[in-house]
Amino acid sequence: MIREHLSIQKIFDLKKWEQLQDSLASVTKLAILTVDYKGNPVTSHSQCQSFCKKVRQDESLLPYCQKCDSRGGLEAVRSNKPYIYLCHYDIVDIAVPIIIDDKYIGAVMAGQVRLADPSSALQLEQILTSKNEKLYSSKWEELKNDYADLPSMTYQEIQTISNMLSLLCNYIVEEAMNKNLLAEMFEKASATQSTPQLSEILPDYSLEHIESLKKEMNNFLADAYLNSSGDVDIPCGNPVLKPAFEYIFQHKGETFSLKAMADLCHISPSYFSRLFAKETGENFSSYLSRLKIKWAKQLLEATDIPVSQISSELGFNEPGYFIKIFKKYEGTTPAVYRKYYKG
């Protein structure tokens, strides 16, 4: 069978995967690296933090990092699920195993974050501790500022991201396996001049299952990207309108009515409308449409999520209306915009 000769290089289109890996690292704020079954990197390190770069460049500290990587991957394989642990510097790392027919072919390594809720560290195993306290204390002065710059996350956020990465890997593996099996069966069929049945080619294949995984993955990517794609400074100088602006920017996938936003600000719809036009220079409906098209462009530029799903994620009633509004503001359709942006 073709599956016996599969390697991570055959399962993953590494060029496309590395682009996705970079996007995932940007969205999740995690550093991400993909390795083969021997632990050798098959991609570059996406968003590697300066602290970890310095530690790994230090010949006396690098062996501890390598031992953590090795042990983390081993524990992930053993449990056949993402393994979340603390490295020798008490930094959170994740090992997501890539397994086919009980055969370990590689892993996605992610992490380089601090726990925002230190009490949850009790739930995690520190995978390696060093008895060389003198070594660590001598290095700390040059590392402490970089350590303080590490992003922090709650344990719940880390769990959510690790599950998403596992889901993504499973989807890619399953789809690649189906393609390989399909190619193998048609090779055999062409040699015998017979026409294979779908049930013979992929007896366990479930299109619904694949589509469900893909949709769930896309939903996560869209939500994560929109929730971390800037917009830190909400453009509102009027304190009366601030609750409405905050709600809109925190619930990008909802449909907003002028009355609901006015109620949120505890003023009448007519007064809200006048204040809003004065603040933004346009009416509520136009401003909202323009804002959602801005978010749509970000998703088109940074992800491969289908246009219909972007429409749904941003609260448009149906894709046709989304395309119409997008064309009104950008002069082209979302599909054409994505094509020319990505070249």
UniProtKB/TrEMBL annotation:
Residues 242-340 form the HTH araC/xylS-type domain. SUPFAM superfamilies: Homeodomain-like. It holds the Pfam family HTH_18. Keywords: DNA-binding, Transcription, Transcription regulation. Gene3D superfamilies: Homeodomain-like. InterPro entries: Homeodomain-like_sf (IPR009057), HTH_AraC (IPR018060), HTH_AraC-typ_CS (IPR018062), PocR_dom (IPR018771), Tscrpt_reg_AraC-type_HTH (IPR020449). This is Ligand-binding sensor protein/AraC-like DNA-binding protein. It comes from Paenibacillus peoriae.
